[in-house]
Amino acid sequence: MLKRRWPAVYALAAAGVLALTALPVASATSVGTEAATVTDIPVRGTFTYPHFGKFDGETIVGAVHGVRRIPGATAVYYSVATEPGSGQALRSGFAFQPSMSPFKVLDASQMTIVDAVGLTAYRPLFIKGEGGLVSAPAGEEFPAGTLVGVYAVLPELPAGVTSVDLVLEWGAVVSDLPVEDGPLLPASATTWGPVSDGWPALPDAQRIAAADPAASTFELTSRVGDLEESTETDTTPEEVSVSLSADFFFSPGTWDLSGKGRARVLEVADELVAANVTHATVVGHTDSVPDKRIGNDELSQRRARTVADVLRERAPSLDLKVEGRGEAEPVAPNSTDAGKKKNRRVTVTYEVSK
Question: Which residues form the signal peptide (predicted)?
Answer without folding.
Answer: 1-28
